[in-house]
Amino acid sequence: MHNFCPHCGHALERREVEDQRVRPVCPACNHIVYLNPLLAVGVIAERADGRVALVRRGEDPGRGLWGLPAGFMEIDESTEEAARRECLEETGLEIELGELWGVWSYFHSLKQMSGVLVLYRARVTGGEAAAGSDATEVKFFAPDEIPFQELAFETHSQALRRWQEGTLSPARLTRTQPHHDN
Questions:
Q1: Contact 125/96 with Cβ under 8 angstroms?
Q2: CB 73 within 8 A of CB 160
Q3: SS3 44
Q4: What single-letter DSSP state applies at residue 164?
Q5: Per the domain annotation, does 89 fall within a domain?
Q6: pLDDT (tens digit, 9 = 90+) per residue, 124-181?
Q7: Phi, psi (deg, nearest 5) at residue 71
Q8: Over the range 37-76, which residues count as b (16 or more CB within 10 Å of their CB) and which as e?
Q9: Helix/strand/coil (H/E/C) assignment for every residue in 74-141
Q10: Which domain holds residue 58?
Q11: What are the CA-CA distances from residue 10 to residues 1, 25, 26, 34, 108 (Å)?
Q12: Cα angle at 119 between 117 and 121, to 5 degrees?
């Protein structure tokens, strides 16, 4: 929460502004501070064998639970750059981004704020799996091994269920089976 005006340094007060919302406003220069949701970006990073990388979280929220490699986007990067950076930082893996997998909104109950999660599918292209500073473990899971009951975030669960359904669908299994002529 902002306490001081970013323009003139005066203490902010909360009052209703022209859009009928209560916002932090500077009484000295009338600057309105807009509190916008955070943007998190991540990946469903798949190896050639069809297994997906998950990280065991070393920090709250969700310490000790599994999650997708993801984190907050920096002000000077694109969502694609943030996705690659977060995956490398959390897993030690280099990736090639694929399709935009989805966009989810969420509410962070501890911080009492909303956010947006952007996820891409990605293919692991290099690196060695090693937990980053905010993770304790990196592990690859087959589609039918995803520990849904141990996932830290509902958004990750929704994304992985959709991925799992597409990966295990009969049509996909039929297409990926080698064809043999007799």
A1: yes
A2: no
A3: strand
A4: H
A5: yes
A6: 999 999 999 899 999 999 999 999 999 999 999 999 999 999 877 554 433 333 333 3
A7: -175, -175
A8: eeebbbbbbbeeeebbbbbbbbeeebeebbbbbbbebeee
A9: CCCCCHHHHHHHHHHHHHCEEEEEEEEEEEEEEEECCCCEEEEEEEEEEEEEEECCCCCCCEEEEEEE
A10: 38-158
A11: 15, 10, 7, 16, 29
A12: 175
> How far apart are the C-alpha atoms of 105 and 52, rounded to whole Å?
23
Q: Looking at residue 117, which CATH number applies to its domain?
A: 3.90.79.10
Render pLDDT for 51-91 as a digit per residue (tens, 0 to 9): 999 999 999 889 999 999 999 999 999 999 999 999 999 99
Question: Which residue is listed with tokens 């994304």?
Answer: 159
Encoded amino acid at 116, one letter: V
Give dist(CA 29, CA 92) in Å, integer: 47
